[in-house]
Amino acid sequence: MNKPTSKRNKATSAASSDSTPSDDQDLEEISQEEDPGSATITVSAVEVPELTEQEQRDRLHLERKVERAFFEAGRALAELRDRRLYRSTHKTFEEYCKDRFGYSRRQPYFLMEAAVIFQNLEQKCDRNDHILPTNEWQIRPLSKLDPDIQPEAWEQAVESANGKVPSHRIVKDVVQRIMDRTKVLNTYQIGEVCQIIVKDNPELRGKGGCWAIVSAVNEFSCTVRVWDGEYTIGLQRLKSFNYLPQECQQMQSLSDRITQVYSDSLEETVKNLLQLLGKVNRPYLTALEEKLLTLLESEYGRIP
């Protein structure tokens, strides 16, 4: 009766003996756990093929497209503005840019001015360097300089950046050094009447020869009022009429009247007439000019 039990015990004992590792096996496993760095890892080498000549040309072509993106945007915005292609949906260019592109009021003008600067650098900088700006922010400080000096400033900034595209800060520092070197004291006064001299500035297109009233005096520029708004203009683009205080007051009154009549939705003929009044090089209107302005004030309901 006890023999079957004895056999089962033996079987259990045998199974236990087979599943228990030997002392040598225990030491081997422990050794491997304690020294995982001894394990061998095989890494297959991946060969990276060199670019072919065609791929190198394609890369350069695509890089140039990326670099010129803001330039193309600025040119496109200028054409949209100049041809008034926004007029079917918006009264002003600024409203159109805000609704269509999400731009702030100043952003389209920054891009348009940057496009002019980029083209200037592209034409006048050393072609062997091929270092051109890649965004508007990098070259915004150059807008304070005359176009003839901008290439010099950009090349100095590239040199400061060790031959790479310079940052906004580097360009700003270079521009500041140049302006300190050629610093001109700003002697304009608020209320003074100046003439605008256009020099490759997209914001001032159509403003050449116009008179403007100084509304703020800055270190290297003045903020001035013309018939269609306010602009900040460098000192090199302004020339004083040297009017007497009374004559400046007369021009201030004329500026206020034109501003009250002007809006971007006016007919082109009316806007052209107001623009002509904004270019008179004397501190008064003739009898005919006075009648025309009074008629426009009456027609468009701007008389207080």
TrEMBL record:
Residues 11-20 have a biased composition (Low complexity). Residues 1-56 are annotated as: Disordered. It comes from the Bacteria. Residues 1-10 have a biased composition (Basic residues). Residues 21-36 have a biased composition (Acidic residues). This is Site-specific DNA-cytosine methylase. It comes from Nostoc favosum CHAB5714. The lineage of its organism: Bacteria, Bacillati, Cyanobacteriota, Cyanophyceae, Nostocales.
